[in-house]
Amino acid sequence: MEISTVSSIAVLETNKILLERNHAMFSIREFIDFMKGKFDVAVEINAVGEEAVLLYHEEVDENLIPQEILTYLPNPIQFNIYSINDEYEWIVGVALAADTYDPLYLVCLKDGERVYQTINGLDKVEMHKEEMTLRCGRK
């Protein structure tokens, strides 16, 4: 096999991995759909603020991820933040596995108050979901 063929195969495999990762990530389009579907808030794409940070557990604000949920998330986590300011300040944070970019936890704040949260994709969390739901005050 020639070197150029090996390089081409490596590039194709890398692109495939990146596409799979990007597919798993929570995107601006998903944020817009989420806001419309959950809260009936229409969002213009150019009004969305976006930030992504890698956070270790000791850096995570308790208002974003409660300790009882943080315990089950990998350390560190990729945290993507989407925000808009209209009549209210809306912030949606998505905790992703840092190595796979799979969305694991989503939280929505309205004017700094948690109005929605959901857990996704962790076997450990699924096993303890009922217990955690009770501790988080959701029924």
Secondary structure blueprint with pairings:
Blueprint: H1 3-24, H2 28-39, E1 49-55, H3 67-70, E2 77-85, E3 89-97, E4 103-110, E5 113-119, H4 123-127, H5 129-135
Antiparallel strand pairs: 1-2, 2-3, 3-4, 4-5
Biggest beta-sheet profile: 5 strands, antiparallel
Uncertain stretches of 5 or more adjacent residues? 1-24, 121-139
Give the beta-strand count: 5
As a whole number of angstroms, the C-alpha radius of gyration is 18 Å
Order of helices and strands, N to C?
HHEHEEEEHH
Description:
With 139 residues, the chain is of the alpha+beta class. Helices cover 36% and strands 29% of the residues. The chain has helices spanning 3-24, 28-39, 67-70, 123-127, 129-135; strands spanning 49-55, 77-85, 89-97, 103-110, 113-119. The chain has a five-stranded antiparallel beta sheet, with no helix packed on it. Residues 1-24 and 121-139 have low confidence and may be disordered.
Briefly say what this structure is.
Helix content is 36%, strand content 29%.
Provide the descriptors you would attach to this structure in a database record:
about 140 residues, 5 helices, disordered N terminus, disordered C terminus
